[in-house]
Design a protein that fits this description.
The protein has three helices and eight strands; from the N terminus they run αββββββαβαβ. It is an alpha+beta fold and 155 residues long. The chain has one domain. The strands form two sheets. A six-stranded antiparallel sheet has the order 3-5-4-6-8-7. A hairpin with a 5-residue loop joins β1 and β2. The radius of gyration is 18 Å and the shape is globular.
């Protein structure tokens, strides 16, 4: 009986921690309060800062776009390939697909923009768990913080 109580307390602790550290969103889904965003819950228009690790990303430090930030998600989609093509090929596919979507969001073609593309895509391990999602984000090539959304700003 004692062990069930301990497990329950630990589980409640995790739930409380996640609720406290999770980014706040308004009724439209926009981030309005700084906090953690699950990598599988990233939405177009989400702004976030660089993570301490970009190897296997499980969450991102979300911030309101009105605050200075490193990145903004501009596309989220599933890849449509039958089998995992390998890490390098998946990275290339994600990058090419993101660049194809770049101008529609930013309002300027990729080659003449001051922004670059950062991609998050399935790893070999996550593919096995049915992860097919690619997240495309923009960031300033000069490592300057972005303020406000990059959508339609022709940066």
């Amino acid at each position: 009986m004692k062990s069930w109580g301990i497990y329950l307390l630990v589980a409640l602790g995790f739930v409380a921690y996640n609720a406290i550290t999770e980014a706040d969103r308004d009724s439209s889904g926009a981030i309005v309060g700084e906090g953690s965003v699950d990598a599988f819950q990233v939405q177009v228009g989400d702004c976030f800062n660089d993570s301490s690790s970009f190897d296997e990303i499980s969450s991102l430090p979300g911030v309101p776009c009105s605050d200075p930030h490193d990145n903004e998600a501009f596309a989220v989609f599933d890849v449509s390939v039958a089998a995992y093509p390998g890490e390098d090929a998946m990275g290339e596919l994600a990058n090419t697909s993101c660049i194809e979507r770049f101008e529609a969001f930013v309002g300027k073609d990729y080659e003449s923009s001051a922004l670059d593309v950062f991609t998050m895509y399935p790893s070999t391990d996550s593919w096995i768990q049915d992860d097919r999602e690619v997240v495309c984000a923009v960031y300033d090539m000069n490592a300057a913080k972005l303020v406000g959304s990059a959508k339609g700003r022709s940066l």
